[in-house]
Write a structure and sequence with these properties.
Layout lengths: L6 H27 L7 E5 L5 H12 L6 H10 L5 E5 L17 E3 L2 E2 L7 H17 L2 H11 L6 E4 L1 E3 L8 H17 L9 E4 L3 E2 L8 H5 L7 E2 L5
Parallel strand pairs: 5-7
Antiparallel strand pairs: 1-2, 2-3, 3-6, 4-5, 8-9
Helix pairs in contact: 2-3, 4-5
């Protein structure tokens, strides 16, 4: 029989065991953090089941801007002849991951703002673009953009493209290429999206903290100093 341990020795033994358990837990956490998960994505046509996913991404795109994302989502789904959504490829039923087979990781589409004139969300998008342009652009540019929005002979389209940050940018190029094919087909069949003469893309850019925010400084901002939220932009 081993000799009985004193109180102090028992406490030391317990502390050592606790430290060992803590080290093992940290090692396990490190393994989980460093684990890489390979996921394959595929583009699908937009359908009614994509409403929640598209709306969520539109809210991410517009953040707290006053744009009716619910109405905009409805419009994009109604014109499902153009646009795509990104989903995980072949989610198996026995998969251990808690993944919804209808979960959307990104999307792209095109909305004819001129054709939708008077629709609340279309008017809100135009007002938002003009307001942001007034902050960063010369007056002549704002006036030209306003004329563009009111030129019925040359319709303007808004091209929303958004994805989650963990989706690689390489997927963006084939989605844009597919959109151009769908736009050409829409033009052939005389659908609104095929009539767009201009396409406006929304790009979120950032500058390093401490940089001047004056209009003059921003107007002279070198392109290489800008950081884009989406790498392909």
């Amino acid at each position: 029989m081993p000799p009985a341990l004193g109180k102090e020795e028992q406490e030391d033994r317990v502390e050592e065991e606790d430290e060992d358990d803590s080290d093992e837990e940290e090692d396990e956490e490190d393994e989980v953090v460093n684990e890489e998960v390979n996921i394959e994505f595929e583009a699908y046509s937009i359908s009614d089941n994509d409403y929640d996913g598209i709306k969520k991404l539109l809210q991410q795109l517009f953040l707290k801007a006053p744009v009716d994302t619910a109405e905009l989502t409805d419009l994009l789904i109604q014109q499902n002849h153009i646009g795509s959504v990104i989903k995980q490829t072949d989610v198996s039923e026995d998969s251990d991951d808690d993944v919804d087979e209808d979960e959307i990781f990104g999307f792209i589409s095109l909305l004819n703002l001129t054709e939708r004139k008077g629709t609340p969300c279309a008017e809100q998008i135009k007002e938002l673009i003009l307001r942001l342009c007034e902050k960063d652009c010369e007056k002549s540019m704002v006036e030209e953009l306003d004329r563009l929005f009111n030129d019925t002979a040359r319709p303007a389209g808004f091209l929303p493209s958004e994805r989650f940050i963990n989706v690689p940018p390489q997927i963006a190029l084939p989605m844009h290429q597919q959109l151009q094919k769908e736009r050409a087909e829409a033009h052939r069949t005389n659908k609104p999206c095929g009539k767009c003469h201009f396409c406006l893309l929304s790009s979120r850019t950032f500058v390093e903290a401490g940089k001047s925010n004056s209009r003059k400084k921003r107007s002279n901002q070198k392109r290489e100093e800008l950081m884009f939220a989406n790498a392909e932009e």
